[in-house]
Please model this.
Amino acid sequence: MIALTKTLKYVCIGRITLRNQLAYVVDFLVRSLFLLLILYIFLQLWQTTFAGEGAASIAGYSFRQLMWYLIVTESMTLACPSLCTRLEEEVKSGDVAFKLVRPVNFIAFHYVEYMSEVAVRFCVNVILGGMLGLLVLGPPDDMTGFLWLPLTALGGFTLNFMLNMVVALSAFWVEETRGLEFVYNKFLFTVGGMLMPIELFPESLQRIVRWLPLQGIVYTPAKTAVAFEAVRLAGMLMAQAGWIVIFACVALLVYRRGVKKLNVNGG
Amino acid sequence: MESIRVTELGKTFRLKRKREGLAGSVRSLLRPDYVEKAAVEGVTFTVRQGEKLAFVGPNGAGKSTTIKMLTGILHPTSGHAEVLGLNPWKERMKLAHCIGSVFGQKSQLWYHLPPSDTFELMSRIYELRRSDYVQRRDELIERFDIGPHLHTAVRKLSLGERMRCEIAASLLHRPQVIFLDEPTIGLDVVVKQRIRELVNELNREEGTTLFLTSHDAGDVERLCDRAIVINGGRMIFDDRVELMKRRFLTHKTVQLVLHEEPGSLQMPGVQEQARDGVKLTLSVDMGVTSIEAVLSQIMAAYLLVDVTVEDPPMEEIITQMYRTGVHEQEEGVG
Model:
């Protein structure tokens, strides 16, 4: 009964954030136009690359698979709000006090808030990106992997939240966290597999990247969707879950230390 | 029974000192220089259940830091505090169920959504039973007269309407202690009065302990029985508001707009503070004369267009306290 009440609390926070986010749908739609521009540029780039290689596939990916891979990774990346900006502003304005003075878990509150926002943005991006994909590329060859997308994307967004939370919590000490976030995002764009699948990296880099948590964010969902391999799925999901647990613990530890150091501004 | 017990509470912040000029900035980057600033020092007091306490002082005096420590948001550097028998910073989640807080300069209501949605969220956050929540919500809607605004997006509410909703939202879980940080800031006289009446009613009927900070001497005078004055992180006064008024709230400011430019005003207990054509600002010593007597005398000689009577700001009262040496007399307060 107690567990149910506590769960309901976070479900309600998620629902109200979702409703609040709906006020920004037009804003998201306008932003998502940027997604179309990026995808158009990638389309041109990879068309030229495939033409130059003269091959039907590169590292096991056909042109159509690669483009659908990018639709997934870009839709996910552009759906993620900046947690660092949010926490930094909360600390600077003193609004963090409101979260701390209520009987809610600080990290869980931010998680449901983040995921609700992600849900709205991701839906908008997937609809726009999907429409573009269907119009320009046609449907993916195999839809099996796309059935796993809700689950793998949930894991990817959760892992991204945990990693971002660790970075954002440094706001409790330094107040300025955008620099760290900038570096983190650049790693995600490159070695995280956002710009291209990890299989396209040089062998030595692939070996390093496989040990990094970043692959669980956009690579796992996009790879599973467009180049589904049933034998690898369980391993990829377990790696994703493992990294989520590890970084949830790290975020909790950082939070516990940070909250003691916190200097709430304002008032 | 005590609601709050504070013993030798202190909070020191470590601040980075910025040096002047570009070279100074580079030096600060390489070899940062820190200074320690005591925001609160050795504060000791207790608050009885149902008591209405004003915790006042000028900007940067340590009021908000103390409130933040008592609500568990900040960890103190030294000392001890108990709110409803709980250590705020160690048992923050448990304490959060029993206390309420209103920060006048911040909003807890969701901007794009109607207050009813925030109420619903609060009921879940505080894990209220549905029947209890519905009963309490309806009671607060009636008491705060917010029925017509409940389903309007917060961004479309006036400040006064929003503030009534803010306070009602903070009371849904029937807190035993409520921390009000500048609850009437920016509100007009009528709304201020209404908020004060509502808070007084709440204290009377539910025995809620009030812990108020405000720069408005009117809030202190009309809401609280006892006042603690803090300045530079230290307590300089702790006694009944009545005594504080008698000793330090001796002047009122009267602003007049007359039909014609007045000549020199010579009245006992009245001091001219500013003059700008037909506008006149007077300081009236209530121990010598009354507002009524001053106004009658002016109206007998001039045609009055507008008049406002204000309490002096808290800063002025504290200056007055220092002028009369209260900080020396009250060194051992608490």
Notes: Chain B has two domains: 49-247, 250-310. The domain at 49-247 of chain B is CATH 3.40.50.300 (Rossmann fold).
